[in-house]
Specification:
This protein is α/β, with parallel strands linked by helices. It has one domain: Rossmann fold (3-Layer(aba) Sandwich). The protein has helices spanning 62-72, 95-106; strands spanning 2-5, 15-19, 30-31, 47-51, 81-84, 113-114. The chain has a 6-stranded parallel sheet with strand order 3-2-1-4-5-6, with helices on one face. Helix 1 crosses helix 2. Mean pLDDT is 74; it is low at 83-92 and 111-115.
């Protein structure tokens, strides 16, 4: 399965499109808060995509999100975490911060991190 976190209005075919709240007129596949336990099975994903998501969180919230994300990856055939960081007003936002958070929870499972 491919998971698209923080999909907003951009629904990607072939992905489980997830967000905390659906936009009017947009049907998302799964609604949940990334700061709470995720309603997804462990080892269910081959890819997780999160574009323009990180600027919505504080730096101290990243470890929980990284832990939940890495728990989703299938141990075999993991294509890794795909993300794009756009910092906006979040001054903590950097490749190093995100990579450190993910590495702390999933170094063995997330084989590639591209920012």
């Amino acid at each position: 399965m491919k998971i698209h976190l923080g999909c907003g209005r951009k629904i990607l075919p072939g992905y489980l499109n997830c967000d905390v709240e659906p936009f009017e007129g947009v049907e998302i596949d799964k609604q949940f808060n990334l700061l709470l336990p995720w309603p997804l099975d462990s080892d269910c994903a081959e890819e997780v995509r999160a574009v323009h998501v990180w600027e919505h969180f504080y730096e101290w919230q990243l470890p929980h999100i990284a832990q939940e994300c890495c728990a989703c990856f299938s141990p075999m055939g993991c294509s890794g975490w795909k993300c794009q960081i756009s910092c906006g007003a979040a001054t903590w936002c950097s490749k190093g911060t995100l990579k450190s958070a993910i590495a702390a929870y999933g170094a063995r499972r997330c084989t590639r991190i591209s920012c």
